[in-house]
Amino acid sequence: MAWIYVVAAGILEVIWAYSMKQSEGFSRLTPSIVTLVTMIASFALLALAMRSLPLGTAYTVWTGIGAVGAFLVGIMILGEAANPMRLGAAALIVSGLVLMKLSSDA
Predict the structure, then answer these.
(1) Of these four, 10, 24, 68, 95, which has the most CB atoms within 10 Å of its CB?
(2) Could you tell me which of 1, 34, 41, 42 has the C-alpha nearest to residue 18?
(3) DSSP letter, residue 97
(4) What is 22-82 written as a DSSP string?
(5) Nearest C-alpha neighbor of 62 from the set 84, 39, 85, 82
(6) Which DSSP state fits 12?
(7) For the chain, which residues make up each domain, given as ranges?
(8) How far, in Å, CA of 61 to CA of 46, rounded?
(9) Cα-flanking dihedrals φ and ψ of residue 64, to 5°?
(10) pTM listed for this prediction
(11) pLDDT tens across the length of the chain (106 residues)
């Protein structure tokens, strides 16, 4: 169950990052509210995951899902650049997440 929590928390991190971008510095109400609600939910799920996962594993996977997810949202929704170096960096993050998961006892 802890892995489900950490993945869900990572997905919520992507949502709050995108909503924060859409809030234009918290000057737009709806995206600002979505940011705060999903941020709190993401932290709560991460806290639940950390009950049984090691700190380093849970936090690394959470931030990695958020980083790669935000990167993909930036490319697919916001039209950000997808050059080879950025794609390679994202691949390295995913590789690190896989290794972190494989090295975990939980």
Answers:
(1) 10
(2) 34
(3) H
(4) HTTTTTSHHHHHHHHHHHHHHHHHHHHHTTTS-HHHHHHHHHHHHHHHHHHHHHHTT----
(5) 39
(6) H
(7) 2-103
(8) 10
(9) -65, -45
(10) 0.88
(11) 999 999 999 999 999 999 999 999 999 999 999 999 999 999 999 999 999 999 988 999 999 999 999 999 999 999 999 999 999 999 999 998 888 888 877 6
